[in-house]
Every structure is written in structure tokens, then in C-alpha cells.
Design brief:
16% strand, disordered C terminus, alpha+beta
């Protein structure tokens, strides 16, 4: 139910792993640990389905000619039902919830992202939905969330001192397979002349 039930993402302290909880009452955001049994040791993200704040009401024409938007950069102006991602660096308090702005289902977040409305409600457009969400996640976690193939990870491991998060886990079977330079390679690399090492540490 829109603006009443929220999905919750609970990050660990390093923002490298997360638990995803579905259909948690938005009003219980300050009591997540009690109502879900999940410890909140890091940031959280709440996902709420919302209509635009001025979508309906006295004198509002919900069928006006400019009611629909299709551009991701204008997603915050979306009138129709669309997901809104609220990021909090720490668990909000009861006081934060009680003093949220009018018509807001949640308190003011540290960062927010609106996903532009979609007629089919699939929200799966590569450029209009998926890419902006990926960039939002990269901003809040300060990590690269691109998908990397194993041959790309191998090349990166031979030319960089650190690897993106996508090269550190194997999502196929859930096992970890960090690709890092071996001890002997690291020692030999230190002995090499600087002009033979044209790489810089990956951020």
C-alpha cells in the first residue's frame, strides 16, 4: 500500500552488505530493530511508493495535459505512483518521525532519490530508471556498483592496487572470490622501475 508500507534496506557499517526487508510499516521506521528483529548498525534506506505531493485535491485536475513526465532529471516532479528512496545515515528517532513535513510518509532524509514514473510500473528503463538508481547507490555507499566480467577483473587486478566491489564477490553462488595481487607479485612489483608501472591506485 503506497506511503504506508515501505521496503527497507539495512546496510552494514561499511555499506558493503545489506539486508532487504519487504512491506514494513513506514510509521515504524524508528522501531526497526524491535519490529523486525534485525540489528541496525549502519545506514538504512527506505523505499516508498508515492504519488506527487500535489497530485490530487480540491481544484486539481489529475488528467491535465502535462500530468506525465518521462525524464529522469524531472523525477522529483512525478505525479503518478513512483518509488522514492530515502537514505538515512543512522536510524531515525521517534521525534524525527513525529516532526516530518506535512504529506511526507517519512522524515527528511540525508539523501533522496525519486524514480521517474512509468506507465507499466515496471521501472526497468536502462537510462531512465536503472542508471539513475545505480548512481544514487554509488553516491550513498561511496562505491562503484558497475557489473564487471571476470576478464575485466583480472586485468584490473594486474594494473591496480585495489578493485571495485563488483570484482570482490561472485554473485553466482554467493561465495567470495577476491582477486588481489599475490604476495610474490606485490614484492616483485615494488622492485620494478616506476616507468614500468603506469597504473594508479583505484579509488
Amino acid at each position: 500500500m503506497f506511503s504506508v508500507l515501505c521496503d527497507v534496506v539495512i546496510f552494514n557499517e561499511n555499506k558493503t552488505e545489506a539486508s532487504y526487508l519487504e512491506a514494513v510499516p513506514c510509521a515504524l521506521v524508528s522501531k526497526l530493530e524491535i519490529v523486525t528483529g534485525h540489528k541496525v548498525s549502519g545506514p538504512i534506506m527506505m523505499i516508498s511508493l508515492e504519488y506527487g505531493k500535489n497530485f490530487s485535491g480540491p481544484g486539481k485536475d489529475v488528467f491535465n495535459s502535462e500530468r506525465a513526465l518521462g525524464e529522469a532529471k524531472l523525477a522529483y516532479q512525478s505525479n503518478f505512483l513512483h518509488p522514492v528512496l530515502y537514505f538515512y545515515s543512522k536510524l531515525v528517532t521517534v521525534n524525527d518521525y513525529l516532526h516530518r513535513p506535512e504529506k511526507w510518509p517519512l522524515p527528511i532524509p540525508d539523501d533522496i532519490h525519486h524514480i521517474v514514473e512509468d506507465f507499466t510500473t515496471k521501472f526497468d528503463g536502462p537510462a531512465t530508471h536503472i542508471l539513475p538508481v545505480r548512481r544514487f547507490l554509488e553516491r550513498i555507499t561511496q562505491r562503484d556498483h558497475r557489473f564487471w566480467f571476470s576478464d575485466q577483473c583480472l586485468k584490473l587486478s594486474l594494473t591496480y592496487n585495489s578493485l571495485p566491489l563488483g570484482c570482490r564477490t561472485n554473485e553466482g553462488n554467493g561465495s567470495s572470490w577476491p582477486i588481489t595481487a599475490s604476495g610474490p607479485l606485490d614484492r616483485n612489483r615494488l622492485k620494478m622501475s616506476a616507468h614500468l608501472l603506469p597504473f594508479v591506485a583505484a579509488k
